[in-house]
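Input:
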Amino acid sequence: MTDSVYHIGTQDLPLTNRVNQIPEKAVEEYYTSGHRTCQGCESALIMRLMAKAAGPRTIILGSTGCMYVANTTYYSTPWVVPWMHTQLGSAGSAATGTAAALRALMRKGKMKEEPINVIAFCGDGGGVDMGVSSISAALMHTQYNLLIICYDNESYANTDIQISGSSPWGANTTFTPPGKKIRIMYKNWKKNIAALYAVGHTKCNYVATGDASYPADLIDKVRKGLKEPGPAFIHTFDPCPKGWDYDPFYSHKLGELAVESGLFPLWEMTNGELTYTGVSARHVYGGRSRKPVREYLETQGRFHHFIEEDYQYFQSEVEKMWTDWAMPGVIPFKLGADPSKKK
Amino acid sequence: MATVVDQKGAGVELLTGSEVMAHICRLADVDVLTAYPIRPYDTVMQFVSKMIANGDFDADYIPAESEHGQFEVVKHASACGARVFTGSSGVGWLYAMEPLAVTAGLRLPMVALVGCRALDDPGAFGTEHNDALLVRDLGWMINFPSTAQEVVELGLMSYRVAEDPRVFLPCAIAMDGAFLTHSQATVRVPSQEQVNEFLPPYDRGDLLLHPDNPITIAPQANEDWLMEIRRQSSEAGKNAYTVMKEVYKDYSRIFGDDVNPFLEEYMTEDADVVLCGMGTLALPVKVAIREMRKDGKKVGLVRLKWVRPFPTDELRESLSRFKAVGVIDRDYSYGSPYHGGILLNEVKAALYGSDKQPHMKGFICGLGGREVLLEDVKSMADEVLSIANSGKADNDVRWVGVRGKQ
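Output:
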C-alpha cells in the first residue's frame, strides 16, 4: 500500500463521563510506584491519569524536566508501558519519530498492524519555550496519530524554579526574585499556549486544556485526543508545592481555584468546534460566576510580595480576558469594525 | 536523475555521490527519512523524495522543521525498530548537535550523510571536514568516501556495522560537499539481491520500544551508573572495528570487490614518502603522484576511509614503511599541538611509541572548498621528499594554497 493512502486506526477508548465511574478503573495503573516526585505534585497525578486513560497498548515519550528526573532513576521506573526519554525541546519530534516508525513498519509488513497510542509529554519549558518548534511541526503531520501533553507547573521546577514563558505575571522565581528596588521582576503575561497550537494548526483535530483537580474531564480529554485521527495537544495546569511555595495539602484546591477564578479556563477544540468544559462551561454559557483571583494568589508564597495594586492589576487582566477577548482563554482579540465605515 | 537500475544485476549509471546515497537508501529499504534544507547534503533528499513520489521507494519521508527535529525524529524511529536515514551539512549539523550526542549515548543505529561544508561565520558553501569531525568523540562512526563508487561500499557498510547488535552506534558518511555530493561519475550500482544478501533486517531485539516489550529507555543515571554506561559505549566502538573486519569479508564475497576495509594505498609498494589524507583530496593527489613518478620521485598515497573507528594498527603498520609522511588536513584545530589539523594530531597519536616512526609533516589546504591544485600537491610532496632526504623535520604546519606570507 502506498504511503499516501495508508492510515492506521486509533483506539476507541470509552469515555468515563462522570467522576464516579473512575473507581471501576482504579486497579488499572500504568504509572505506579517507583518515582520520587514531591508530595502534592499535580504533574505526577497528570502522568497517572494520562497513563490510566491511555491503557496498555501505548508508547510514552518523556521530555527532560521534573517528570523525567523525578520519575525515572536508573534501575527504577514507575512506567508499566514502554517509556523513553527525549530531549527538552523534542516532545513533538519524539512523538513524530515514534508514530512514523510504527506507520512505516506496519505498512511495510515489518510489524503487526494495530493502533498503538503514542504520547509525548513535556513540561512548560519543553512545551511553551524550547519545544514550540518541534510540537508545531508534529501538529502539522495529519498522517500520524499522536498526542502531546504539556504539564505546566509554570516554571523550570526541576532545575531550581526559574521563570518560563508559562510563568504568571509577577511570580517570585529564582531568576525573578523581588528585591529592594524592584518588586515585580517578571512583567510578562503567561503565554496562551494551547490556543496558539489550536489556532496555528488548522488540520489538528483536537486541542484541550485540563487540570488534575478534574480527573474525569482530564481522562476523557486524553481519550478523545487519542481517538481523533492525527496529532492532538493537551495543556494541563499543575499546581507545584515546591515551585509555588504552599503546603502540599492545597494542590487540589489551587487547581480548582485557578479554574473557578477564570484564570485557567477548561476547554476542548474537536474538529473545528470549541466548547468550554466543567466549571468553565458554566462561566461561559451561564449558571455560575467567577471567584476573585485573590484567594488563589494569596495561598502561594510566590506572590507574597504582592501589594494591593498588584492584586488589582492581576484581577483586571483576568477581567479583560473574560470581557474583551473573543473567546476567554483562547482568542485575545475581537473582530474590528469595517474600516470602510470608520470615520 | 538517472533511471533506476535494473533490479536483477549491477548496472552502470552516471551518478553523483548524493544520488548514489539515495539509491543505497532505496536498496537498504530504509523505513523513515527526515529532511531539512541546507547545501550541499540536501541533494540526497531531493533524489529520495523523487523516488518516493515515483513509487520506486516506500518509506515515511518527513521534511522536518529544523535539524534538531530532523535528527530527533529519526532517533526515535530507530528506537522503535525502523531503519533510518537523515543528514545535514555545516552549521545545520551543529544545530543537531544535541540529538547527535544522545543518539550515540542511546546506542541507536542511525546513518547520516554529512555533506561536508565550512562552518559559518563567514558563510561559505565549500567543503571542510570540521563539521563531520566534531562528532568524533561522541561515539559516532565516521567514514570519508573519496568517489561516488565508494559511497556504495561505505553506505552499505554503514548500515551493516551500525545495526550490528555488538555495535549499535550511529554512523556518519562524510562526503565532500560539491566535489562528491554534486559531481557525477560512472558507478556500478548493486542489485537488490546482492544488497539483501549483505544487509540483514534491522533487529533491535529486546531493546525494541513497543507495547509487547514495555521497557524504560534512558532513565536518569548519574554517578551511580554513568561511568559503566560510558565504558560500554567505548567497548561498542572497539567492537565496531572488529565487526568491520569481519563484515568486509562478506562485502568482498558478495560484491566481488576485494577492498581494504580501512585504508586505500596508492603507489606505495616502492614509495619513499607518502601523503596521507581523507576524502576527495585523493583525486588531485593521485594525478600529481603519477606525474611526479615520471620524474623519478617515489611518492605514494595512504588514504583513511574511516576516522572512527580509527584504524590505529593498520595505519601504524602502513606508515612505518616510509621515510616521511605528509598529513593533509582539510580542517583546522585552532590552538592544538603545533597548530596542526585534526587528522595530523590523530595520526601522530596513533604512531607514538611505534618502533619505526617516519618523519611527519602537517599541511592544511583546501579549506572552504578551495580547489587543491596539482602544484599544491607537488609542493607538499616535494617538501616531504626533502625531509626524507635530509632526515630533518620540524613541527611547523604549512598552509598550502593560501594568500599571504608563509
